[in-house]
Design brief:
This protein has 11 helices and no strands. It is mainly alpha-helical. It is elongated and about 65 Å long. One of its GO terms (molecular function) is DNA binding. This is TetR/AcrR family transcriptional regulator.
Length: 203
């Protein structure tokens, strides 16, 4: 029978597990992180881990969901929706998302290692991600659907695909012919893409 924990003990251990998970998942990844790694320093046995989380994938998902509202705030609310027109909004969104992927190690890991997100979704209910009210991808899709008159295509999935292609550039900056010009190249690319995806005013 698993040990009983007071509410305070459970909260303390849960936080330790989440802290361990964030550190380990961002440095060595989901597959290489063991239950023994996750419970280190928490004072619980590996078998007791399951009192707190159903699996290490569930812990990973909880970390993502805990950050989701903050990420949406930065890339959607304070960037995409803050601008007065669709073109400027897309430009702001791309810049904010590039910054997020640079500074947020967990979300950066998801972009550079998509197989980890696939592993989480395979093991858990994908609705927990797609139906989350603060999902930035869902918010972006809603924005694009509402602004089809401003866009060169009425298929939001195509627009999202183009935006994702831009977000891949930082992963390959060292392969540019002139890596020292990365910032200027990125800024110009974002301007070109934002302009190319949107119709001229009054069109």
């Amino acid at each position: 029978m698993p040990p009983a924990f007071s509410a305070a003990e459970k909260a303390r251990i849960t936080k330790l597990l989440l802290d361990n998970g964030e550190r380990l998942f961002t440095t060595q990844g989901l597959r290489k992180t063991s239950l023994e790694d996750l419970v280190a320093g928490t004072g619980i046995a590996k078998s007791t881990f399951y009192v707190f989380f159903d699996s290490k994938e569930a812990l990973y998902l909880d970390l993502m969901l805990a950050q989701m509202a903050e990420v949406k705030g930065r890339v959607i609310d304070q960037a995409l929706l803050k601008e007065s027109d669709t073109r400027a909004g897309l430009r702001a969104f791309l810049h904010a998302t590039i910054a997020e992927l640079r500074d947020n190690l967990l979300y950066s890991r998801l972009v550079t290692h998509p197989e980890e997100m696939d592993a989480v979704v395979r093991k858990l209910d994908p609705e927990r991600v797609t139906a989350a009210p603060d999902n930035p991808v869902t918010a972006l899709m809603s924005f694009l659907t509402e602004h089809t008159d401003d866009l060169v295509t009425d298929d939001p999935a195509v627009i999202i695909g183009v935006l994702q292609a831009v977000l891949m550039l930082p992963l390959h900056r060292d392969r540019l012919a002139s890596p020292d010009l990365y910032t200027k190249i990125l800024d110009l690319l974002i301007d070109i893409i934002s302009s190319g995806l949107t119709r001229p005013a009054g069109a």
